[in-house]
Structures are given as C-alpha cells and as structure tokens.
Amino acid sequence: MLIRNRRLRTSEAVRSLVRETAITPNDFIVPLFVVEGKNVKEEISSMPNYFRYSLDLLEKEVKELWSLGLKSVLLFVKVPDDLKDNKGTEALNKDGLMQRAVKTVKNAVPEMVVMTDVALDPYSSYGHDGIVENGRILNDPTKEVLAKMSLSHVQAGAEFVAPSDMMDGRIKTIRELLEKEGFDTAGIMSYSAKYASAFYGPFRDALDSAPGFGDKKTYQMDPANRDEAIKETLLDIEEGADIVMIKPGLCYLDIVRDIRNTVNVPVAVYQVSGEYAMIKAASEKGWLDHDAVVLEQLTAIKRAGAQMIASYFAKDAVKLL
Ligand code: PBG
C-alpha cells in the first residue's frame, strides 16, 4: 500500500497539524433572554442550565461572556402578557425592555457587539411574527413595523438587527429606513433561510411566544426545500443584508454548504433551542457524552460552512477549547 490515510492520524499532535476546522471564541454569537425585574435568573424548564436574566444580572452575564472571549450577543426579550397586542406596539417603546437591554449591555461592555432579534412574536397577542387579520398573517403592514422596530433598536445602540420573521421584502424596508434616518453603519443579519421547524419549541417556552393558533408555515420555509433557500438568501443580500443566516443547524447543513458556495457575504448558523435540549436531555440520562457531542456538532456546523454560530452552547464550548 503506497497511500495509508492512518499516517495522518497517529497522534493528537499529527491530527491537530492536519485538522481542517477549528472552533474559536470568535465564532460565537450568544443568545440571551431578558426579563423584567431585579435579581432574576430563571432557568428555562426545557433548556436546562439556560436562563432568563433581569437587566442587573444581564450586566454581570455579559461581563463574564466578554472575559471568556465571547464578543457578540443576540438579545431576546420576554414581554409581559398585558403589553402584547396584534401590532407589537410595545416593540416600538423607546423605553421598552429590549431598548433598555441594549443600553445595559453597551454600558457594561462597550465593545460587545449587540444584535437584536426583530420579529413580532414576543410582542404579539397571537404569538405570530406578523400582524394578524382574519386568521392570516399580513406581510406588508408587518414589514413597516419591523423597520420601525429595527430603527428603535439601533437608536438604543444595537450594531446589528436580526429580523427573524420571514416576511417578504422586509430587509429592503428595514435597510431603507435605517439609511434614511442616518444609521448607515447599522448592520442587518437576516434570518434568510429560516425553516418552519419543530426544533423551536424550547425557545417558545423561554419567551412564552408559541403561536396561539395555527403554525408558521405560511412564512417560514418548508423543510423539504433546498433551492428556495438560495432564492431567499440571494434576495436578502440584494435587499441589503450584511450577514445571512440559516436556521436550524444540524438538520440543514446541506443548505449551509449550498449557501456558503453561492454567496460572498458572511454566513451564520443558528443552532436552535431544540438542538440544545436534545443534547441536554440525552446527556442527563447518561446516553451521550455532553462535551464531546457539543464540540462535534459545533465543528460540523463550521465545517459545513458557517462563519459564525449562534449557540446556547457558546459558553460551554469556549470553556472546553
Ligand atoms: C422569533 C424567533 C424564534 C427563534 C428565534 N427567533 C422562534 C420562532 O420563529 O418561532 C427560535 C430560536 C430557537 O429555537 O432557539 N421569530
């Protein structure tokens, strides 16, 4: 035998020399859940060891993240029921929880990259990502609200807005409003290929944002589709997206590679709440080796083509590196 592949696997030193993919703290975006109150750190029941923080504890948490080398956060807020309505009015409140959360992070760690989720669902009395009329999700009126919401987040100090709603044309509407208002350096990380996935369940527990009727299949993508992911992503780039995202991760790595091979903007992947919960549950039972599985999945996501990963495992991962 002239060629023996095992020569390149003889020791950890050799393997590390020829390793094609490495994860670093630079790769991560840390999703954070924020709630009203003081001194609140609530564990999310379907996401063991993941928490909702009140603003005072959020401050502590982001300082710790920064000290671990994690330099980017993606903020989500849990909105009290009495502030929810059909049009997401509270989302535009200058002094709303998201706007205060952005300022809190920026004050605590000014260099931290702050990204904000832009979608109506946490603010919607229907738990949908758009305005509802006669049981339908309205596209064009929703994108106007999303643009105002984005403006409000960048006014509070966010560097990137991350529209996660999948309304058509919203990137253009957001981009035009940000330009018009002078926020030409604010970035858009678009959830470009976001699938109607069953893996978002624990996240909806975290924010109490499950749809009150029906499902999200008239706006989020059909998991069976591949070409459509490219169409969605190219359109978002044309409309002014700076970073494109594929979501969820593990089941969609073929899409990640397709998109990475097609576009010339940075590609992000969201390893979602259900992916987190699966690993936690199986490792709590002793069925999987938690740390090994976490690193394997993150490495696979990066190998598939992700240049950054939004992951609930970010903190665990950097401690393991
Ligand atoms: C809101 C939003 C969702 C997620 C991110 N932003 C839920 C949904 O679309 O229903 C899911 C994230 C996760 O599961 O970790 N539009």
TrEMBL record:
This is Delta-aminolevulinic acid dehydratase. Homooctamer. InterPro entries: ALAD, ALAD_AS, Aldolase_TIM. Mg(2+) binds at E232. Pathway: Porphyrin-containing compound metabolism; protoporphyrin-IX biosynthesis; coproporphyrinogen-III from 5-aminolevulinate: step 1/4. GO terms for molecular function: porphobilinogen synthase activity; zinc ion binding. GO terms for cellular component: cytosol.
